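ENTRY TYPE: paired fold submission
RECORD: A
CONTENT: sequence, then structure tokens
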Amino acid sequence: MAIKLRLARGGSKKRPFYRIVVADSRMPRDGRYIEKLGTYNPLLPKDSEDRVKLDMERVQYWLGQGAQTTDRVSRFLEAAGVVDKKERANLKKAEPGKKAQERAEEKAAKAAEAAEASTDE
């Protein structure tokens, strides 16, 4: 059984509220979970103490049992100093798509032709 520490969404439309739960990875996001470990309220200011609340003792227990964390929960745990900070790099994020690259190549070719034409005259 693959155990995960993840978020389960609650709250109403456009007013999200999350429970940080331990769940079998095969269960639905808001479905059955094993244990509730804390809460996350994204509507509160980032410096608020009530934004993320965790039961650290139980979090340590489940990590010791081999539970995996989702990216967002691992960020909460990194901020709390429970787990080491992971190296995250999306190297392709700033790279333009195929069509944009093709347009840039065409533009560079036209600029080179125009430069050649102006030097020949």
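RECORD: B
CONTENT: sequence, then structure tokens
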Amino acid sequence: MVHHNTSSRTQTCRGAGLIEVMVAVIVFSVGLIGILRMQLAAMRNAESAFASNHAALLAYAMFDVLRADRAGAAGDRYDIPKTCSTTSGKSGLAGSALNDWLQSLKATLGNHDGVCGEVDCTGADCLVRVYWDDSRATEGSSAASIEVRSRL
């Protein structure tokens, strides 16, 4: 009769199972890290889309102000060069509207030096630019801007 040594076979199987579990945990961990990175990129890009949308809305809001005071807009009372401050340096109705608009830019797009506004009207043709920092987005720029032109 031949006797088989079963204890050595059992020890070999136990070690192989442990290695398989460790490999499975490593593969799962790498996959989970990949999913988390994709989720983070999606969140950053959603934030970028939010900022772009709000920049456009704020540019159109300035056009509503300009249309409400066409004479003031045609008289260059609302014209400001690229301004990153919350004050326009103008007085009266135009100065108050511009200050409110610049404060809205900062409140919505971030209160830092990269958030700026610009208004330039030549007669009834007006240009409004909004600048902001979009560097957190995938391939985003630290100097993002939107430009809207319209005839009042």
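NOTES ON RECORD B: The longest strand covers residues 125-132. The chain has a mean pLDDT of 87.
STATUS: closed
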